[in-house]
Amino acid sequence: MKDSLIIGTRGSKLALWQAHWVQKVLTSNQSNLKVEIHTIKTRGDKILDVPLAKVGGKGLFVKEIENALIDGRIDLAVHSMKDMPGLIPAGLRIGAIPVRESAEDVLISYKDTPFLEMANNAKIGTSSLRRAAQLRALKPDLNIQPLRGNLDTRLEKLERERFDAIVLAAAGVKRLGLENRISEYLDMATMLPAVGQGALCIEIRENDPAIEAAVSALNDPETSIAISAERAFLNRLEGGCQTPIAAHAKMRDGRVHLVGMVASIDGRQIFKQSIDGSPQAAVNIGTRLADQLLDQGARDILELLKESTNA
Fold first, then answer.
1. Residue 42 φ/ψ, nearest 5 degrees
2. Measured between alpha carbons, how far is residue 145 from residues 85, 156, 208 in Å?
3. Residue 114 lies in a domain
4. What is the mean pLDDT of the chain?
5. Per the domain annotation, does 310 fall within a domain?
6. Residue 16 sits in a domain of what CATH number?
7. What was the pLDDT predicted at 48?
8. Which structural domain, as residue segments, surrounds residue 230?
């Protein structure tokens, strides 16, 4: 076992909370271990005036950190799992996935108005195509406006830019102790979350047994199985920030239950289905569900989105 480690992370309040949580667990497991935290600014942190879907695909918040891991400047990286691209760069791998926090999205409204009671023209802030599509499917006349920035920045913009409400991941709000700001938890029938939402990703180098041993205690088997199914679903669809794709898996009665969705940007078409199977077949479950949605019509949506992105 090594006696010192360097964690790489983004510099937002939430990212630092996550890195400090990992630091605390590592040092509690090995009392003589010294763990430093090194912040790295990613492309996604630098470009704040453009919607994520127009900036590029998944990887906007991890690539520079992964480069530091490959170069040996850091020993492990702590990411939000929902920021992770489907494919991990050569030489790297996921070393551990800790127990998942709440995967739901939450509504934070200016006047604590529940979602279904909002006016049709209510101004809702989100830069997520996934969230926007599902909101429009329920209330087509909503005025959905792009909202970028770290969690605390988006909360500030709620009042400053006169949004009626904003939609955020419950996990980040809870981790920063801001549960009192939540107006409503959006159930998964209303708002299916992003792949990996609520989970952390501990990324390490391949063939690095010392780091692998250090992070192994952080891994939660049930969360890892669920995330494997979700990420297989995402990989089969070749999804990124430009595509309204959602999925959530959980263990239920010893089996993996996975719900997946592909939607058109305007929310008029939604393909959604569930599947279950054995934990050992988690990856196969994700791939099979993706194929079912593709056959039902999701392929046409994804091809149109790909054409518009490349135009």
1. -100, 170
2. 25, 15, 44
3. yes
4. 92
5. yes
6. 3.40.190.10
7. 63
8. 220-311
Same domain, yes or no, for 229 and 212?
no
Residue 310's pLDDT is: 63
pLDDT tens per residue across span 11-70: 999 999 999 999 999 999 888 999 999 999 988 777 766 666 666 566 788 999 999 999
The residues that are catalytic are 83
1 pLDDT tier (thresholds 50, 70, 90): low
- Distance between CA atoms of 122 and 114, rounded to whole angstroms? 12
Q: Quick one: 76 and 163 in the same domain?
A: no
**pLDDT score of 194 more than 90:** yes
Whole-number pLDDT of residue 84:
93
Per-residue model confidence (pLDDT) at position 60: 80
- What is the pLDDT confidence band of residue 75, given thresholds at 50, 70 and 90? very high
Do 125 and 71 share a domain, yes or no?
Answer: no
Looking at the fold, whether 228 and 215 belong to one and the same domain comes out as no
Q: What is the 3-state secondary structure (H, E, C) of the chain?
A: CCCEEEEEECCCHHHHHHHHHHHHHHHHHCCCCEEEEEECCCHHHHCCCCCHHHHCCCCCCCHHHHHHHHHCCCCEEEEEHHHCCCCCCCCEEEEECCCCCCCCEEEEECCCCCHHHCCCCCEEECCCHHHHHHHHHHCCCCEEECCCCCHHHHHHHHHHCCCCEEEEEHHHHHHCCCHHHCCEEECCCCCCCCCCCCCEEEEEECCCHHHHHHHHHHCCHHHHHHHHHHHHHHHHHCCCCCCCEEEEEEEECCEEEEEEEEECCCCCCEEEEEEEECHHHHHHHHHHHHHHHHHHHHHHHHHHHHHHHHC
Report the domain count for the chain: 3
How far does the chain reach from its first CA to its final CA, in angstroms? 51
Q: In terms of residues, how long is the chain?
A: 311
pLDDT score of 59: 76
CA distance 165 to 116: 12
The verdict on residue 129 lying in a domain is yes
